[in-house]
Known about the structure:
Elements: H1 5-16, H2 20-30, H3 39-52, H4 74-91, H5 102-141, H6 152-159, H7 172-196, H8 200-219, H9 249-268, H10 270-277, H11 282-288, H12 290-303, E1 307-313, H13 333-338, E2 344-350, H14 359-370, H15 372-375, E3 382-384, E4 392-399, E5 402-408, H16 417-431, H17 433-436
Helix pairs in contact: 1-2, 1-7, 2-3, 3-4, 4-5, 5-7, 6-7, 7-8, 7-9, 8-9, 12-16
Amino acid sequence: MTRWDQLHERYFSYLAILSFDKAKELLDKEGGRMSSDFLPYLQMLVQYERSYHNFGFIVGPKGNLSNVRRDKSLSQCYSDLHMSLIEVQTNGKSNISTQASADEVKEINYIEQLTAGLITFFSIRTSLMKLYEQISTAVRRNEHNVRLEGYLDEATSISQLDMSALNIPVLHSLRRLLKHEIDCLLLLIQSYVYICEYQYMDGISSLHHMHCVLSNWNENIENQQNANHRFTLSSSSALSFFKSSTKPALYTFFLKFHELLVAKFTLYFTDILLEYGGPEAKTPMSKTNPEFSTRIAQFSRRSNVEWITLILHTKTQRTCSSQFQPINNNNSLASATSGDDSAYRIIFGYPSKLHSTDDIAQQILKKVEINTETLINGEKMFYNGDANQLKTYFLQNIDPRITLALVFASHRQERDTTITNFLSELLDLLRGSRQLLYFKTAPK
Length: 444
């Protein structure tokens, strides 16, 4: 052990639990006892990590300049630290003198290991920010239909990066922080894709795994005080639904998105969950998606809609990534349970689920089949109804394989705001658009 180990270990432990004030206080009080070569890096890292965990990397209307350095983005700030340490590492390659004492040799080796570990940390942090910046740009371009499956390859690649340089004792806590975030990111996108692809076993497995990672991460994060303005949202912010949380914004984003995916999974796989869980499953299921069920019930009362259904495109080609490996080989459970081999199948219905042989069900499925090409990109709503028809149909894709259908027993206008607003709100909820606003609007 060197004279710096304990101080550095305390510092990195504070960073790992996101206790930035304690890390800064330690540097202010004990910085003089630390390696002078590293002190400037440690001081900047506190500022950068605080900004990072508060979404300081998002792309704004004027670019992505950080609130730490007005002339650079946060990713550029990290990149500068990364390159600077590489230069230190290159110039500091030491030939240990044969006359060096054992303590001196130990300190030289320690500094080399710490430098290599921090270079790895900055490199991975920069890779994560590049991915987040891509998502932020996509949300700014079209906040209502961002498809996360397009980022699966990159998230997988980041998860496979070599972190062995972080295995030295003083950086163990920092490695744990990175691992929690990377695991959550990958599991979030995997869960999102599995649910969109209607993969029951893989979906429930990845959601459970993400829950375990989030729980473990939560135990290793210090609560933030509400008085800390850096984590407080104004009441007028579009993100004000986050403001009651006492955790930093990045962790809160993962937590809220996981809750959404559990709710969406419950909605899509209602029949299977009830079949295998029995009547006892209704109570826990009702607690996972109260917003979905409440909005659907309220809309039904206001609009007199006859049927609200979700239709699965069973034959549509899946949009799996090149690195997308199924967890289970038993994803046929959903199809086997239904006993239905048709190209389109109703998986949810309100006020009750339609049987595939019902006349109205046949009409809905036929319209979905005829208009598949129109629906497939998820942007355009299909409308079918005129004064001479007994029924009016509104169809729109939520995911590539899932279509939402509304059926009215009378003529309704295509631009009926009650209907179009409901469609827009429900699609935003199911696609995670509200959560992804975090990548568009920085907390105040």
